[in-house]
Amino acid sequence: MFSAYTRRGLLLKTRTPPSIFRALSLSPPSPLRSPHGQALSLVNVKDVASSFKDWFLERRRRYPPSLTHETLTLTLNHDVQRICEVLSRGDCGSETEAALSDLHVRLTDECVVRVLKLQKDVLPSLKFFDWAGRQAGYRHTGAAFHAIFKMLSRAKLMTVMLDWLETFTKQRSVYTFRLHDTLVIGYAVAGKPEIALQIFGKMRFQGLDLDGFAYNVLLNGLVEDNCFDAEDIIAKQIEMRGFRNGITFCISMKSLCKQNRLDEAMNLLLELLRNGNDVNEYMLTITVDALCRQRRFVEVEGLMEEFRDSGKISMSNAYNTWITHLVETGSIDSAMELFHDEKNVGFFSPWLRCYTVLITGLLRKDRLEEIYDLLVEMRLRGIFADRNTMNATVCFFCKAGMVDVAIELYNDRLEMGFCPSYLAYNSLINALCRDWRVDEAFRVLEDGLQGNYFPGKKTFFILADALYRSGDLDKMGKLVDAAIERNFLPSNAICVRYISALCKAGRVDEGYLLPAKLNKPDMFLRRSTYFDLIYGFCEKKRGDIASRLLLEMRENGHSPSRSLYRVVISCLCDMGHIEQVLNLLEMHVNGNLSDSEVENEIYNHFIDAAGHAGQPELARKVFEKMVEDGLRPNIHTNILMLHSYLKSKRIVTALNSFRELCECLEPSTKLYNVIIVGLCRADKTELALALWRDARERGLIPSLTCYEELVHMLCCSENYEMVIKVVKDFEETGRHVSIYMYNILLCHILKSQELIKAWLRSGVDGSQSGNSVLGRLVGAFPNIQSLEDHLQNFEELIERRIHANIVTYNVVLRSLCKAGRVEAACTLFSIMCRNGKKGCEPNPWTYDIVVHGLCKVGRLRDAKFFMEKMFEMNFYPTKGTIDLYRFLATRGQRVQQ
Predict the structure, then answer these.
(1) 259 Cβ partners below 8 Å, 6+ apart?
(2) N or C: which end of the chain has fewer CB within 10 A?
(3) Residue 72 has what DSSP assignment?
(4) What whole-number distance in Å separates Cα of residue 603 and Cα of residue 754?
């Protein structure tokens, strides 16, 4: 692709091969995944940024910012420079007039017009125009009036222009230039061609006429205002008077294009070219522009070929316009092909805007190498970057994974005169967030807010998400406040995440008030957001708001979970608002009168929550209300009532309720499971055993949980003979023993020999002992000594005998430590770290057991080492372990003293 550049006379020897992406080890288009940009591994950020910064500063060094773009194309003489220097001071009083008079400049029409073209500020220009008109030996011409009217038009000061023209109409002008010509020119430029026509009509009635310049200004004003009928009449008048010239043809061409008479415009243009008439680049450019707007690129290509073959006019503007439209329509490949076409060498000199448009189009396609090549070419051709180029370059560095260079250029923006665009701000913030540099991204946002920049939806979401993940709620709050100030409503997804984050940070009130703050009281909240709000208010003992949210949650189509009902009702009960619970139930039921199944579910949730809160009387009231409302309690309702009695340790009531249920309903496994587990957890093991026997006599098989609770309670009470019977019965049911039951039995086998002795006394058949759970455990762990001997193949032994988890390892570790076998415990810990499979890695309890065991044998140095390891993994020892460690450490210090 560089051969075309060479033919254009570029000095490519200065270009550093290979391209930047190979030099920087980039792999476009997505090198952003590595933090802080691996793209910069082979290049110094400061050097790259400094190189581009020098390029950006070249324009400011060569052309001061006070001068306009015309400075680049007009060669100023000494007098014009001196006048511009006086006017650049910005003073519009008598001092400016005195300073201008002191210059002793000989005014000419050319001098005045050039000064007016070079000035950006309107008021000094008007002052100069007024002063010049009163100088001896000079009178304004139509060109001067046209220049000042054009300036007022560009500045959109139509009121000033019309007031001035009205003054001209009411009184004779102080200027000698003809009054009517001035008015016609002024109103035509001001966008009031109908008034200009009226004045023209009065002139003709008085026998006066316009000159060629004024006719063309009037004709252009009519075309600009789409007055095409009147334009035809004035065009004929111009032709009749012999005023028709190249400017008239240009205006006629513009008229045809505005009327979408493109075929006529092309035919006229080609006719003028073939007949040798006045044809200029402007006529070709406006025709190409109109054809491109209609996407008639084939006709554009044919037209450009004919003009190129003629070689009569410059075609740079037309080529630039063509390329710009190709990019804007998404045909970036065609635009790049045209840009590099060798046939265009000598006819086409790219504009700065053409480069910028191409770079912007390539940015959309992530074609980063080509962008860099264009930037290199711009520098080699001596094309100075403007603000648009700077913005495109910053976007390029962000996309190329070189955000450090982009931020360096951004930080020096004031020195370079760089004003970041909307796209540049978005690119910077997005790139910084992807590199997890959230503080810098927020700083860029704050800078932009001062210049009325505010991110779009996508960038807003990226920044809000980054702030949410970093947990910086204060900055997230500032972002939301800035959005509210600008009437920008964040999406529901952002709002609910912000609310959840506020709730988890203990700022639940702010989260609750956010919808009202955003003026979105009907904001649809997610189910999880309601959970966060309700849990947050319950933690603050604000049950009234929590209950209101629970009701609102159901009204919005979300189903509260059982745990959520428990939290809210427990909070109300702790606050002593029992009646409010019943009122809440009433409101829930009233909204679901047509659905008995939903009502049943609501009552069951309230009964369960009341029992969980230790309020069996409240649960009973809910139960009675359910019956009053004509609903029939199901088995689940009765089980929940039974739970409520058991949790509040009302054992007699629970047993009576159980008997009543067994009389009313057919005894079921569910009922027995509930009562047996409840009695075990209430430490009523004998009652639980009696009901277990009753269930087995009825032919019912209790659940695994029942057996686990029975085994646990019996082991704790050291009733090992009964443990063996229960385990044996469980195995006879044909079910697999759970890891939990294995761990309980293993713990007590290692604790003492009593369970093993009871197992031996039970007279178990030797041929079947190896297949029973106790037989496998006793065979693996007959005593602590045998455990030590098998530590190296412990994992294999465990897997062969039982299904182990981390609790199993912790049980063995604790037993070793209690027996004083700390060395063996450390060996087992090392085995867990080295060979531990998923789910068996050391957890906080593992570390605590080892630290506690080391402290008990006085090995404080080793205990300190393991404690430091705990802290590194964010694990913390239990209070008992810390107290023991501190006691031993203090005692050791006293001994040393």
Answers:
(1) 228
(2) C
(3) G
(4) 49
**C-alpha angle 756-760-761 in degrees, rounded to nearest 5:** 115
Give the separation between CA 148 and CA 116, rounded to whole angstroms: 7
Contact 507, 523 (CB under 8 A): no
Residue 566 forms part of a structural domain: no
Give 184 or 256, the one with higher predicted confidence: 256
Contacts with 405 (C-beta within 8 Å, 6 or more apart), sequence order: 40, 45, 48, 49, 52, 397
Measured over the CA atoms of residue 728, residue 734, residue 736 and residue 741, the dihedral's sign is negative
Residue 704 token pair: 């695994």
Q: Is residue 37 part of a domain?
A: no
Q: How many domains does the chain have?
A: 1
Apex 867 CA angle, 806 and 837, nearest 5 = 25
Q: Is the dihedral of CA 794, 795, 796, 797 positive or negative?
A: positive
Task: Please state, in angstroms and rounded to a whole number, the distance separating the CA atoms of residues 366 and 305.
Answer: 32
Average pLDDT for the chain: 79
Give the confidence band of 471 by pLDDT, cuts at 50, 70, 90.
confident
- pLDDT one-digit tens code per residue, 264-276: 888 888 888 887 7
Our measurement of the distance from residue 276's CA atom to the centroid of its chain's CA atoms, rounded to an integer in Å, reads 61
CB 494 within 8 A of CB 500: no
Measured CA to CA, the distance from residue 608 to residue 642 in angstroms comes to 10
**With bands split at pLDDT 50, 70 and 90, how would you rate the model's confidence at 175?**
very low
Between CA 534 and CA 701 the distance in angstroms is 40
This prediction has a pTM of 0.64
Alpha carbon distance 266, 645 (integer Å): 96
CA dihedral 511, 513, 514, 517 (to 10 degrees): -160
CA pair distance 23, 372, nearest whole angstrom: 12
pLDDT digits (tens, 9 = 90+) for 105-149: 778 777 877 887 777 676 677 677 777 766 766 767 767 776 776
In a domain, 546, yes or no: no
CA distance 319 to 304: 8
Instruction: Return the amino acid letter for 308.
Output: R
DSSP state of 342: G
Structure-token pair, residue 139: 């009178």
Domain extent for 506: 436-512
Query: Do the domain assignments include residue 441?
Result: yes
Under 8 Å between Cβ of 772 and 741 = no
Residues in the chain: 897
d(CA 88, CA 99): 12
Residue 896 tokens, joined: 């040393």
CA pair distance 222, 397, nearest whole angstrom: 47
Whether the per-residue pLDDT at 654 is higher than 70: the answer is yes
Residue 310 to residues 270, 345, 372, 752, Cα–Cα distance (Å): 11, 15, 35, 110
Residue that has been written with the tokens 């075609």 in this structure: 315
For residues 328 and 363, give the distance between their C-alpha atoms in angstroms, rounded to a whole number.
13
Q: Taking residues 723-748, what's their average pLDDT?
A: 86
CA distances (Å), origin 593, targets 554, 596, 624: 14, 7, 17
Give the list of residues 6+ apart from residue 521 with CB closer than 8 angstroms, or none.
515
Q: Which two three-digit tokens encode residue 88?
A: 């650049």
Yes or no: say if 468 and 498 are a contact pair by the CB < 8 Å rule. yes
Question: Which candidate, 252, 246, 330, 317, places its Cα nearest to that of 288?
Answer: 317
Render the burial of 321-343: b for 16+ CB within 10 Å, e for the rest.
bbbbbbbeeebbebbbebbeeee
SS3 readout for 421-472: CHHHHHHHHHHHHHCCCHHHHHHHHHHHHHCCCCCCHHHHHHHHHHHHHHCC
CA distance 127 to 91: 10
Is 81 within 8 Å of 50 (Cβ atoms)?
no
